[in-house]
Amino acid sequence: MTATTSDKAAKAPKPAVIQVENPSTGEIIQEVPDLTEAQVTELVERARAAQPDWAALGFDGRARYLKRMQKWFLDNTERLTRQIHEENGKSIDEATIEVMYGVLASSFWAKHAGKYLADEKVSSRSPFVLGRKLVIRYEPLGVVGVIGPWNNPLLNNFGDVIPALAAGNAVVLKPSEVTPLTSLLMAEMCLAVGLPEGVFAVATGSGATGAALVEQVDGLMFTGSTRTGKKVAARCGERLIPVSLELGGKDPVIVLADADLERAANVTLFSAMHNSGQTCTSSERVYVEAPVYDEFVTLMTDRFKALRVGESTGFGTSDSGSLTFPPQLDIVSRHVDEAVKDGATAVTGGRVKAGAGRFFEPTLLTGVTQDMACMREETFGPTLPIMKVADADEAVRLANDTAYGLQAAVWTKDTSKGEQLARRLQAGTVTINDALANYFALELPMGGWKDSGLGARHGKDGIRKFANRQSVLVTRFGMKNELHGMPFKAKNFNALQKLVGTLYGHPRDTKG
Ligand code: NDP
Fold first, then answer.
1. 55 lines ligand 1 (CB under 6 A)
2. How many domains does the chain fold into?
3. Residue 512 pLDDT
């Protein structure tokens, strides 16, 4: 008996797919392919073939495409906002912030890439290079891999693609399997703005797809957990390719007695609850000086109680959206339950909200101690533990008592005291009387210390990481041989020693 076409179709292995869910409703909204290693290889090969012509366009040529992207972001804000909201669960307002970042970033890198990667002449006093021209210059890495998380489907995914492209690289982006649709929309945008074929591709898939990408690219930008980041960095180390890592955080907020408490409460509310706390730079714990502790807790309690939790249907309809990733509900619940069991008080919330979706009630915790999971581990949820401290010294000591070092905030009307405290905090960024605002100053590098990562996003470091640096030394008018050249001659070395003595023989401040 011969098999029919439909029998064969039934027996053929089904291509692996990933189902994408709307976390606010639980509804499956789309399926995307789970790319195999061979399919990732194909994308990288296409990118490698396209990259030299892309690099040859130069900064101005590439900037033209980035400006078209900027226009596309503006023209398609509503559609893109809906897409981010639908697959991530964040409010429409917060999704729009991501789109605004797309506008800013495409404009910023179009303007600054050439400046940050321009040839740089340097001078040297060294007697060994007198009269030489010294230049530092940059070349694109080739094919860059970007591996992104689910919390910011645009900002922490295509957001990093933009500077990599501006530097002259081709890019393959592996978004989280939880939120791949925004990245696919970015591929559609690249087509619409006429980006040359192969210069940008999206590799949808699971962790294995990401691991396959790490094997093939010439440099990597990774955003996600410290656990996976360390694995990825180890493999990049074995392959000796540059890697930049933006990982977790447990960002402290220090509120001193002289702070503008109302502003501190409002801004901390946003920095803790933005994206339902699913932000690596969200405020995760607060230390308040004793004299203002009660007043600050009252201000925060009022604000937490007023938050509207639920699916956003338009601007200003919800303050706290759904958690995106199913395991987050367990992590957040565990941190709250353990804290309460050990004596803390959930002044507001404390539970999963009943009904469809993955909503967690905004939870303010008091009576916490430094050893609780809610004060030590990344919660990544809509909770905020607040602790009373005796003074600024105690606050700094507790703030630094963590494996992480991403961001910190200090609140005081005495800004010079704030700046002094900032210097004692182990964090890649410190804001004084503010939080998160630094992310929108793309001139300012943003990166973590300790377990929060390596390298930086934004600023000149945020694009130089996507380039190979080359130092060029040019000798235009050289002698027939160098003083230190062979065969060695005593009189030449005596002269060299004298020259070094003349130039460097009188160091100041050698006492003490
Ligand atoms: P991961 O670090 O596991 O995921 C980040 C990205 O890496 C995703 O695209 C993921 O793919 C991919 N990935 C997973 N395994 C590998 C691998 N072996 N090689 C290459 N890429 C891989 O984070 P989770 O999504 O599991 O979240 C866990 C925790 O991380 C959260 O609870 C939160 O605390 C923190 N987090 C921090 C973020 C930040 O902004 N720094 C963002 C998101 C989470 P896939 O999703 O398909 O598995």
1. no
2. 2
3. 63
